[in-house]
Every structure is written in C-alpha cells, then in structure tokens.
Amino acid sequence: MVKALGIELLKSRRTRSFSLAAILMLVALLWNLVSVGSEFSSRQLDAVGVLFNNQTVNSLLLPIAISIFTSRIVNNERIGQTFKLQNANGRSTLKIFDSKWLLTALFFLLIAIVQTGLVTLYAYSHGVHVPLSISLLQVIGQFLASLSLIYFYLFLALVIEKQGLLLSLGFMGGFFGLVLASKTSALGSFILPFLGAGYLAPYKFSLVDSMTYTYVLDGYLRLRLLLYLLYLAIIAVVIRAMIARKGTFA
C-alpha cells in the first residue's frame, strides 16, 4: 500500500490537484477569519465558538475542493487510458479506488490539521485561549466530514466520464452545504454528506430571540461522532461493494 500510495502521489502531482484544493481551503480560512472580525471582538459571544461553529465557509468550499481534487486525479488516468491496463496487470478496481481514497484522505487530514492550527494561532494572537480538546474535535470532525465527501465524489469520479458533471455536483454540494448549514443542529442531518462539516462542528449557531444569537458548545457532539462513524462505515461498505461489482473502469 505504501508503494501504491507513492505512485498515486507521483501521478497526482502532475494534475495540480494539490495546489488547487489547497488554494480553495486557504480561501475558506481567510474568508472565515475576515467574516468573523466583528463577532470575534464582541463580548456577548464566545470567541472560540465564533471560530469553530456550523456557519463557517468550510460548508461551502470543502465539497468543491474535494470534487475538484478527485476529479483531476481520476481524469488524468482516464485520459491516459490506464485503468484497463492496470486491470490487465492484475490490479483490481477496488485496489485502484483504495489507493486514490487513501491519498485524498491523507491530504485532507493535513488540510484539517493546518487549517485548525492556523485558526488557533489567530485566536492566541488576539488573546483568546482555545482548549486543546476543541482543536482536536475540530480536526476530527472536519476530517470525518471530508471522508464522507471523498467516498461520494471519488466514486462518482470513477463512474462518471464527464468531468464537468462531477464539478457541477461539487458546486451543488457546496451550495447545499452553505444554505442548509443552519439545519445541522438537528441530530439526523448527517444523512447528507454535504452537511458533515457543520454537523460535526464543536459549536452550533443558536437564536436567543429574534434579535440576538449566540454560539453554543454542542452537548451531543460525542453522539454525533458515533453516529457519523456508523454512517461512514455504511457508506464504505456500500460503495466498495458497488466498485467490486463494476469490474473495470472506462
């Protein structure tokens, strides 16, 4: 698997998939920090909650970044017609999927760690202490949300030949992720993979009255993580079974 991962890394570097996804998530980071400026200085709001909640731009840009990344690493091989060659050399479609899935998962884990680390440093630079537990929960939640999107978009990238269609689905996912972010407070909203980033955010947006709002630490976060892990397990079993049955890629 390590050798396969190295090969995938080498092939993916030629597609600029890493740089494009990283730029998008950097935009998400800067957008989040700029947009919370007035909230962050407000004494009425929890400063940590302002930074790590279910209303951030990650809900918009994470699906788009993952759809672009998976689309480019798959389309590169589709153009080169290497899938059938790999099958002929004894490499199963499931192994091809697994190696691309692992590469994408590790990259977006790194994105989650770096993004959370920079937000935490931003907080410290403004005199706000972020508990280590909150930073860890943010990384874990964003990573798990990324995994569901990776399964979804990587599978579509392998079965849909038109790259434009996949990218449009990525933008659609980002749109729904942003528009429905307020619905992620509901315990059952994990069913839509586009809502994962908001669903697993440590803090949730809450209306106090018609004129006042706040960010509240999610008391059900452990249950949400457990439900999402079960959800990921089901997705993994279903998608891997579908890929195993497909046989070969175009």
From TrEMBL:
The keyword Lyase does not apply. It comes from the Bacteria. Pfam families: ABC2_membrane_4. The chain crosses the membrane at residues 20-37, 57-74, 101-124, 136-160, 172-201, 221-243. Keywords: Membrane, Transmembrane, Transmembrane helix. This is Transporter. It comes from Aerococcus tenax.
